[in-house]
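Input:
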Amino acid sequence: MKLWHFNGGLPSLAEHKNESVNLPIEIAPVPTRLIYPLRQHIGNAAKPLVKVGDKVLCGQKIADAQGMISAPIHAGSSGTVISIADHLIPHPSGFSAPSITIETDGLDNEIELTPHTSFRQLAAGELVDLIREAGIVGLGGAAFPTAIKLNTQGKTIQIDTLILNGAECEPYISCDDRLLKERANRVVEGIEILLYMTGAKRAILAIEDNVPDTFTSIQAAIANNQNPIISAAQIPTIYPTGGEKQLIQTLTGKEVPSGKIPADIGIVSINVGTVHAIQQAIIKGKPLTSRVVTITGEGVNKPHNLEVRIGTPIKALIDVCHGYTKHAERLIMGGPMMGFALLNDEIPIVKATNCILVASKQEVVTEKQAMPCIRCGLCASVCPVSLLPQQLYWFSRSEQLEKAERLNLFDCIECGCCDVACPSHIPLVQHFRYAKSALKVQNHEKHLSNVARERFEAREERIARDKAERAERSRKKKAALKSKPAKEEIDAAVNRSKAKKNSTEGED
Amino acid sequence: MHFLTSNAPFIEPQNSIQKMMLWVLIALVPGIITMIWQFGFGILANIIICVSTALIAEAAMLHLRGRPIRPFLSDLSAVVTAVLLALALPTIAPWWIPFIGAFIAIVIAKHLYGGLGYNPFNPAMIAFAILMVSFPKSMTVWMLPYSMLPAESSFSDLLPIILDQQPKQAVVDAMTAATPLDEMKTQLSLNQTIDEIRSLSIFGSLSGQGWQWVSIAYLLGGIILMFKKVISWHIPVGLLTGLFTISFAFYLFEPSVTPSPLFHLLSGGAMLGAFFIATDPVTAAATLKGRFIYGVLIGLLTYVIRTWGGYPEGIAFAVILINMTVPLIDHYTPPRVYGHK
Amino acid sequence: MSFFILIILFAALGILLGYAAIRFKVEGDPLVDKIDAVLPQTQCGQCNFPGCRPYAQAIANGEADINQCPPGGEAGITALADLLGVEAKPLNEENGVEKATLVAVIDEKTCIGCKLCIQACPVDAILGAPKHMHTIIEAECTGCELCLPPCPVECITMEPLAKTLALWQWDKPTTSQQKVVS
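Output:
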């Protein structure tokens, strides 16, 4: 299969896959508590459908989607809702946000499911609704509501290529890899569903070339399925080849125009974990309540690949991994390049969680000293988006944020390649994140100022108008008084008030 | 259990300034060894004086500017500047030439402009240019290669010059001369033809005696650097292409009074400049397209200065002048961003 | 002879410059609009002018200094200094101090529905009617504090905006060479 290259990337990033890539998926036990932050997807937070004290079953919808870009949330096990309140969320800010907490009863009773084994008898639109109702979002980490991605009705551009993203390019993570090794048949069935829904002419399942066993497993499943338009591709192991835009470029040579989505060039890219969830939702009727997570790092005694109920506090999973070692230094949700560090292990697994990396001092860098930029340009040579991180750094540093925006700061995917390549150890991604969030707040404040200005000017106008109207009325009145004889006016007014007095007395 | 937090990426950076500078120094070793083989140990005197002066000056300036000394000294950038300057100076220059040169390079050309990463001009070349203009006599007396020396003479005979004393005139006459580039220029101005000039003993088969091997050694070192990805190919290839193209054009036009392109490429500071001096990241263009253009411009300007300018070697002044155009080059050569036309 | 050549040369260059001045002229916003775009539109009057636009006008006319706006703060003064090409200076303490953004909140138990605050608000951010409960529309309140003095029962307080995830910002990393240990 012909492959293209994206600019830059880190081909020699230490992969650390051996720690977990050979560990089969084990089912994690249901914990005593399940915690569901109401926003664990891109878009509006979900709205709770349950109250404190309600009893829920596994798979029951406990919060509904709000608006078009949103997703419902389902309970991971049966139990009682014990609180709907602020809880620490997995986010770099360390904030808390409204979350539903369920205390499980150990019975794990499930709702009645509605399987659709012959999905071709449903219309594509009905399948989209089923996926939306199942609460499925992008499990690769983006958590974008998948139903919106797959809703091709009314779109002018026909979907031509379906890409299944199994290129787990971040070090340490192997959850998608295990899924493809052990459940490839389900994934292929999921691809069939997606092909039917989108009408795509071909499907490519992409994995990196550092896991040849997985490639064999996928090829077997695809051969078994006997659909010639589904194929598997082995792509070079270069970080971040698993990024959606980079994967599309590698497999098709096309670039997603800035500000547009892949569907605008006839491509849909879905993570293989999401495909598996779609298959379970359509064929078995199961909503999204669990996912595979890799727990690894030198900070846990025994790394695992676990199928966990979404909402499980991280502590419960660490216990399955035989607890912390004495070297545990950081608790990272995600991989070491794009993940974020958490404050404590009470925080729950959410839909987007693919890895918990408990890192030791050797695995993370705890001491950073940035030297001045020596303008070596290594950052630009590794950037997969062909940006100029050096210039973005200079502008962010000197608070010339508009200039950074003009240099396409918002196209940055925050992959971290420039950080790792920089010989001066400058925290480049930090600068870009700061610049992006500062620009967002600045634009928001500008917007507020504009609205305030409009309101102020409208108010001034209204006051001036009132004044002018009043002046006009009193001028008219004065003119009217001058023209008519005064006595007639007064008599008429007296009669009017008499009539009014009589009518109100009559009513009493 | 509670944890401390930090920010992604969490892994150790792959590179460091120290590693890059160390590779530059390693790549210079073939050139230094060839210099010692052809011209004796004078080069070591230059290196020792330059490096020690540079380190002391850097430490002093860092202290005065209130910056942490250890990380800046250990990144070896001052050492590289000093060594490059030492290699550009005559091996028998009086000791105060490398001393003043290193002082100017570090204090004036580097720290007074803001220190590491902020200087707009190549520090070694600024120092070289100032020395060339201020002390032309000391800067144009070079030792002849061993292959041309009278029997039983060696570098130590010229040691007094380094110590700022005058040895016997006969010794000086027998063992020193202008560089081959200088000689070529002088002879051409005396209306000699190339064939006549090339038959002089100072010239070897490729370019100058002794100097041709030094240039090849620098070329070797430069290729090592490119393989280790410490420098990208754009500046060296650009510089050598520019120099080759313009010299080839004039050579085709009038071969009897124009040195061959090969002569230009292997003479003077062309190889050292292409791979080590012009590639100084702080002062070179930042974008890849820009770097190639930067290299080509230096190559062209070097030829112009060598042929029609007042000095026999043009690399130093060419580098400084083109350093001035770097912001403009960077502005007009941004890469095409993914997803944009 | 060379005198004439020079005259012709100067004339040609002059014509070229004149043409360039007209052909490449950049139409810009009037200065007042540019200054007004920088001001925060709080309409509080702390600058001693009745609103942001009059203050912008005064700056453009050279009648007011650039450091009289507390809600704009240091960032605002720097932006004005950049725009006008003058030196930035510290905020004039006589006009007020820079504070974090606050919004007004009416204590509904105490409000008597007198409408005096509604008339005072420069951006119509207070909802209410005579003898009916008044309330501040939080999204529109600019924190100008003009509603506090007219209230006869002093039921309005200024409170900081609740921190939301949507407006959370990453910290700026240090740009010096200090070691960051965590």
